[in-house]
Write a structure and sequence with these properties.
By secondary structure, the protein is mainly α. 69% of the residues lie in helices and 0% in strands.
Length: 115
């Protein structure tokens, strides 16, 4: 049970997502790739933990750099899955409802992602 609970008449954010209830930007967050993204992130986290262990063990810097490159690639590919899913669901909905704020928000997120 969470320490901080919502008032009885206001459902929490997870409940809104779980039940496909529109909120914030007026669209649902029913992404089809959620499980794939979670799995990819779990693998990337495990890989990054192994890289940390390599550093702690004093492994060769070249090996560590190669493994860090693999982690970066895994994260970038995860970002691509998220972006594609977002475009196919949220942005399509934003276009249909003329929600310019959602498109502006995506543009800002892309700018940060590709830095």
């Amino acid at each position: 049970m969470r320490e901080e609970q919502q008032p009885m008449n206001i459902p929490d954010h997870a409940y809104l997502h779980e039940h496909g209830i529109p909120h914030e930007h007026g669209h649902t967050h029913s992404h089809t790739q959620t499980r794939a993204v979670v799995n990819r992130l779990a693998r990337a986290i495990g890989h990054l933990e192994r890289v940390k262990a390599m550093v702690e063990e004093g492994r060769d810097c070249s090996e560590v750099l190669v493994q860090l490159s693999a982690v970066r690639s895994a994260l970038n590919n995860t970002g691509k899955v998220i972006l594609k899913d977002h475009l196919e669901h949220c942005i399509v909905d934003a276009m249909e409802t003329r929600d310019r704020a959602a498109i502006d928000e995506l543009n800002r997120a892309i700018e940060q992602f590709v830095k």
